[in-house]
Amino acid sequence: MKDEIIQKPGRDLSRLLRPKSIAVIGGGWSVAVIKQCKRMGFEGELWPVHPTRDEIAGYPCYKSVADLPSAPDATFIGVNRDATLEVVRDLSARGAGGAVCFASGFAEVADGAERTRDLLANAGEMAVLGPNCYGFINYLDGALLWPDQHGGKRVETGVAIIAQSSNIAINLTMQKRGLPLAYVLTAGNQAQTGLSGLADAALDDPRVTALGLHIEGFDDLAKLEAVFAKARAKKIPVVAIKVGTSAAAQAMTMSHTASLSGADALADAFFARVGVARARSLDEFVETLKLLHVLGPSPDATLGSMSCSGGEASLVGDLADANGLDLRPLTEADAVRVKATLSDMVTISNPLDYHTFIWGDGARMQATYAAFLESGYGLSMLVIDIPRDDRCEDNGSYAAIEAALAAGKASGQRFALVSSLPENLPEALTDQVMAAGIAPLMGLESAIRAARHAADIGAAWARPLPAPLALAGEGEALAALDEARSKEALRAIGIPTPKSKVVDTAAETAAAAAEIGFPVVLKGVGDHLLHKTEMGAVAVNLKTAAEVEAAAARMADLNCRFLVEEMAQGVVAELIVGLSRDPQFGLFLTIGAGGILVEILKDSRSLLLPASRDQIREALLSLRIAPILHGYRGKPGGDLEATIDAIARLADHAAAHGDEIEELDINPLMILQNSVVAVDALLRPRKVSHV
Q1: How many helices (DSSP H) and strands (DSSP E) are in the chain?
Q2: CATH number of 303-462
Q3: How far is Cα 194 from Cα 579, in angstroms, rounded to an integer?
Q4: C-alpha 615, offset from chain centre
Q5: Which segments constitute the ATP-grasp domain (predicted)?
Q6: Residue 395: how many other CB atoms lie within 10 Å
Q7: Secondary structure letter of residue 351 according to DSSP
Q8: What are the tens digits of pLDDT across the range 296-319?
Q9: Is 415:438 a contact under the CB 8 Å cutoff?
C-alpha cells in the first residue's frame, strides 16, 4: 500500500531542525526527549504536553497544543497513531514549524495507507518527519527530538548523517572514532519528507562539513541529483552507504546486457556520476567522513606513507595497489632531503620504512616527518599504533604523535595518522589531532579506502557537472524485433553494420552470398530466434556457395528466414553494448567485454543517461580488456575513436528517445583496426503511455 502514497514537495525544515522552542507530546518515550535536551544544554524553550501530568523532568506541563505559549518550532509527537493525527492537525493550525511522528501503524501496515493520507492532509504546509520516525539530533545547538540514548556530544562543526534506519543511526552516535557529528537525522516512513529533503536541509547549515547518507532505497532520484549538485556547489563532500537491491530491477529480461547490471551496479553508476563516495561498510563510512571533515577531497590519487616497520609498509603497498592509489616514488630532491634525517641503513622509498633508529627522539622524528611531508602527496600518512593503556606502558608512541602533530601543523600538507587496527588509536587523541589539521584514521584498510574516496570526489568535482538524468516516463514493452530489423534501427542512428541481405528461403542464400562477397556469415532470423548461437542458427566464415547452401540446409528445421552478411575482418576485440531499463533509473547504457562468453567474463560498466564522450571513454578504458584495444603483445590496436563515436551515437539517441526503447543489445560490437561494426543486435521497442 505504501506505493499509493505520493510524497508532497519538500518543506522548509529550518525551524524544525534548528528550533528555538520544542514541544513534546505524551509520556513514556517522550520523557526521554525532555531529558536528552536538558542533558545536552538546549538553550531554547521546552514545553511538555500531557493531559494529566503537572510536570516532566522539572518542566511544567501544558494540557494541549492549544495551551502552549506560542506555536512551537519543533514538536516530538509520542502518542498513538490515532492521537497523532489530531495533534498534527492542531499543530498545523497553530503555525508550528514541524513535527516528528514517532507512532507506527501507518504505511508499513496493511490498513495504514488511509491514515497516512490523513496525516499528510492534516499537516498541510507544516513539515513532518515520519511517521514511524525516531527523530533527530542537532549536536550543534543541543536540540534533540530523540527518545533514546545516544553517544554524541556538542560540537561547533561536523558531519550530518541521515539514516533510513534508526538503529543504524543510534549505532553511529556510539562510535568511538572521534567523528564529530553535527546532525543525526532519521527518515522513518518518509510520507512527506524523505532522504532528499533532509539532505537538502542539512546542507543549508554552514556548520556542516560533510554529508553521510545511509540509504535503503532512493526516495526521489531527481531531487537527490539536485541535492548532490547543491552539495558540490557548497564544497560539501557526500558519502553514502547503500544497502539492499531492487527486486524489480532483477526481473527476467531477454537481453544479455540486463543480466550484467543489477540495481546495485546502477547505484554505483549514479554515485560515480554525481561525485558521491560509496562506502561498503560502516567502518569505511565513518573513516571517509572523518577524512573529509578534516581535509576535504584530495587533489589527486597520490599517497605517501611512513611507518617504522617494513610489515606495515608492505600492507600499505598492497592496499594502495588494490585501491588504485598512486604510491609515486620520491623525487631525487625529496629522497635527499628525507635521507639527511635518517640513518645510512634506511632505504628511502615510498612507502617509507624509517626503522626505529630515531624512535623516542622527538626532534629527529619531527625532522623526518617534516622532510617527507614536503614531498607534496595528495595525502601523506603516518602509520602508528598506540599500545593499550590497561596493560602496557608508553613505548615512545606519544612522542611520535607529538612529533607528527608538530610536523603536520607546520607543513600545511594533507596529513593523516593511521592505526593499522581500529582500536589502536585512542579516541581521546582525536580532538588534539584534528585541532592540528590532521586526520586521525582508525584501521588501515578503511583509511586506504577513505583516501581513495577523497581522491574520487576531488576528481569528480574537477569535471563539469553532468547533465540531469534522463528519467523515462511510463510505457509498455513491445515484442522484440528480429536481428535484421534491429540493425535497420542501428543504421538509422549512424551505427555501422555489415553489408547484408535478407532472403526468405535456403535456395536464395548462395546467390545473396555471391552478391555480398565471400566470406560471409549466415544466420537464421525470426521472432523466435533471439539467441541464435544456442539454437544452431549461426554459421560463420563461409567461403563458398556450397558451404552457404550446406549451412542453410542445417537450419531448415528452424522455420526461419535467412540473413546473409559479410564477415568482419581484422577483429581486435568484441564488446557488448546495450540499453536496459530500470524501474527507478530508467534507461541505462552498459559497455562490456562481448561475445559468447559475456556472462562468464562479467567485465562491464554501466552508465546512466545522458552519457558524455568522456564518460564513455572512461568506462571503456576501465574494462579488463582495455589493453587489447591499444594493441597487445605486438598485435595491432583497434579504432578507439570510432568505437566511442558509435557508443556515443547510441547514448545520445537513447537520451533523446528513451521512452521508445525497452532494451537494446549489441553483442558483439566488433572493434576493427580502422572502424567498428555491430554484427548482432536485438531491439525491444516500447510503446509510450501518454497520461
Answers
A1: 23, 30
A2: 3.40.50.261
A3: 30
A4: 16
A5: 487-570
A6: 12
A7: S
A8: 999 999 999 999 999 999 999 999
A9: yes
